[in-house]
Write a structure and sequence with these properties.
With about 180 residues, this protein is mainly alpha-helical. It has eight helices and two strands. The structure holds calcium ion (CA) (3 copies).
């Protein structure tokens, strides 16, 4: 069973992603979000980064639809959205680690990492985070201090993985709750 905190966060995430306010998540919603984050980071639509992100997003959408799009109409309705999270996370332990998350959920951190331009060698500083957050519409850069778990001024891939696990699994007060605003 999903806890109250998870419901609240997943409701918020749905609203955030359903950018055209159609009441369902479609591929075009995800593409719009991706284009905004990449444009904010200064990547041109014909750049290699853009192509790579698009390929990653299409892969994610194909995998996510397998789980979530029950009636196969290429959109994830609100009911499908919650049913899928129940299925993906309902059995998970609240203190499960990132590596225990289902693959479709782990892919989400790759999309965020791609949008932030971070990898094992390079973290995101507060300006990068603020640009990303602004482009997705997830509130203030003030959350950066909370998300930078070790306080070294950068959000690393390791930190992003832990924050992702907390966002999807925790029903307690945890830094990762602020990952998507
Ligand atoms: Ca939509
Ligand atoms: Ca559907
Ligand atoms: Ca850090």
């Amino acid at each position: 069973m999903l806890g109250d905190g998870q419901w609240k966060k997943l409701t918020h995430l749905f609203t955030l992603i359903d950018v055209d306010d159609s009441g369902a998540v479609e591929y075009t919603d995800l593409e719009t979000v991706m284009n905004r984050t990449l444009a904010a980071a200064g990547h041109a639509p014909d750049s290699i980064i853009h192509d790579g992100a698009g390929a990653m997003l299409r892969r994610f959408w194909a995998d996510f639809k397998q789980v979530a799009d029950i009636n196969r109409d290429d959109r994830i309705s609100r009911a499908e959205w919650f049913a899928c999270w129940e299925q993906l996370l309902g059995e998970e332990d609240a203190d499960a680690l990132f590596d225990d998350l289902p693959p479709a959920v782990r892919q989400i951190h790759l999309l965020v990492a791609q949008a932030l331009g971070i990898n094992d060698l390079r973290g995101a500083d507060s300006a990068t985070w603020a640009r990303f957050a602004g482009s997705v519409g997830i509130g203030e850069a003030a959350t950066f201090a909370r998300l930078d778990l070790d306080g070294n001024g950068l959000i690393s891939v390791d930190e992003l993985q832990q924050l992702t696990a907390e966002f999807f699994l925790s029903n307690e007060d945890a830094p990762g709750n602020a990952l998507f605003g």
